[in-house]
Amino acid sequence: MRADARRNYERLITTARTAFMEHGTGASLDDIAKRAGVGSGTLYRHFPTRDALLHAVLRDRIDALLAHADELLAEPAPAPVPEAAPDPEAEALDAEAALGRWLRTYLTGAATPRGTATVIIEAMSAEWAHTGLGAAAAAICDALGRLLDRAQRAGAIRPEVGPRDLLRITNAIGVAAERTSDPAAYSDRMLALLFDGLRTG
Question: Out of 48, 53, 66, 167, which residue is the most buried by the measure of CB atoms under 10 Å away?
């Protein structure tokens, strides 16, 4: 990519990030191009669809979310007391806590720009499979699946719960939270209720 094209690309992403934060994911693409100081044709050459632009804007956040899942899965278990038997209850609590922390982090990201949770729900469908956002949704679902599997193997979460269903429910919380005066508090309250239904005991 030429230097001037690279500058336009980066300026469009920066401008789109601001516009999406101000107006949600439905912000006008023509206005984004105008604010970035380029023509609409330049925007569409770099980003043929709104979803391609949104994926570029969200890429860093998605990468951080996936890395967070890896970090949680790699956290060492508490050092056992010498001669003590493994503590299944402690393992279950740790696995549930890791899953809850990741879902809270996810909802924090899904809350901004407004409309992100709805986009991810749509991107989980088969017709999005070959798009950037579709691949991102699949990667998010895979990361959630690994955390969920750990919690289920530890006996913390009911075994019939699947990652796609859990991701859809979590996104539904995100969509509803957008319409409240305190999205973070609402999300925390709904996640607490959700986990009451997910636990085995």
Answer: 53
Its domain, for residue 35, covers 1-48
Query: Do 37 and 102 lie in a common domain?
Result: no
Asked whether residue 60 falls in the same domain as residue 111, the answer is: yes
pLDDT digits (tens, 9 = 90+) for 36-87: 999 999 999 999 999 999 999 999 889 999 999 999 999 765 555 555 556 7
**pLDDT at 83 (0 to 100):** 57
Q: How far apart are CA 166 and CA 186, in angstroms?
A: 17
Residue 7, C-beta contacts closer than 8 angstroms, at least 6 positions apart: none
Specify whether 85 is located in the same domain as 5. Answer: no
What is the full DSSP assignment across 25-81?
TT--HHHHHHHHTS-HHHHHHH-SSHHHHHHHHHHHHHHHHHHHHHHHHHSPPPPPP
Helix (H, G, I), strand (E, B) or coil at 199: strand
